Amino acid sequence: MKFFIDTANLDQIREAQDLGVLDGVTTNPSLMAKEGISGKENIINHYKTICEIVDGDVSAEVISTDYEGIIKEGEELAALHEQIVVKVPMIKDGIKAIKYFSSKGIKTNCTLVFSAGQALLAAKAGATYVSPFIGRLDDVSTDGVELISQIVEMYNYYEFETQVLAASIRHTMHIIQCMEVGADVATCPLSAITGLLNHPLTDIGLEKFLADYKKVNG
Ligand code: E4P
Q1: For the purposes of burial, counting CB atoms within 10 Å of the CB of 79, is it exposed (0-12), middle (13-18) or buried (19 or more)?
Q2: How far is ligand 1, taken at its centre, from the CA of residue 28, in Å?
Q3: What's the pLDDT score for residue 115?
Q4: C-alpha 139, offset from chain centre
């Protein structure tokens, strides 16, 4: 399973990259706004900087909602760097645009996916990634991980190449659950990734090893 970090914060992206297990980055307009990144030039420069920090795919989201606008914005974003993946919302014009980008060899991430039917459309349009939002589904008493499982099974059955990118991950247990149902990618906050490091028996075991070493070596 690939790990993407779900942030536009450069320090956190660098920290995850330094860990050596990072496969890519996802951003969205809210995450960019949280970092205070505004204005076309600053936004473009920020995406370029992220691409220089990481080796893998970097999702950059369009803000247009009409076909022509999505195509224009997406082509501009894709031209910035070979690692850029154009993130397109799950709407009618978005699906049409994904089909176009797919025919041009431009990578896409279909975002704001909340049902298997939406994931089916994204795959048929040729999306590189589909992003079901599991945390936001959990927030409305619907099992987000169950949706990941359903989409993985459907894509396997029909042999779609679209990768299931579990998004809106809120904590470490979500990562484990996505791994259990076969998600291709989990895009996570840094805290959820580093949470995987933790186990009290590791801390107790290490303390004992070091204490025993000290007993005989001083
Ligand atoms: C990433 O691709 C999504 O935009 C993101 O995971 C949404 O997460 P949130 O539901 O925590 O805002």
Answers
A1: exposed
A2: 7
A3: 98
A4: 19
Catalytic-labelled residue, pool 2, 40, 87, 215? 87
Residue 214 burial (C-beta neighbours within 10 Å; 0-12, 13-18, 19+): exposed
For ligand 1, atom 8: residue with the closest CA = 168
Pocket of ligand 1 contains residue 81 by CB under 6 Å: no
Atom number, ligand 1, closest to the C-alpha of residue 87: 2
Q: What is the pTM of this model?
A: 0.96
Q: How far apart are the C-alpha atoms of 50 and 86, rounded to whole Å?
A: 14
Q: What pLDDT sits at residue 218?
A: 87
* Residue 205 CA, ligand 1 centroid: distance in Å: 36
Determine the pLDDT at residue 113.
99
Q: Rounded to the nearest 10 degrees, what angle do helices 92-103 and 116-125 cross at?
A: 30
- Which residue type is seen at 96? K
pLDDT along the chain (218 residues), means of 10: 98 97 98 97 98 97 98 98 98 98 98 98 98 98 98 98 98 98 98 97 98 96
User: Is 87 an active-site residue?
Assistant: yes
**pLDDT for 110:** 99
Range list of H helices, the chain:
10-19, 29-34, 40-53, 67-80, 92-103, 116-125, 134-139, 144-158, 172-180, 190-195, 200-217
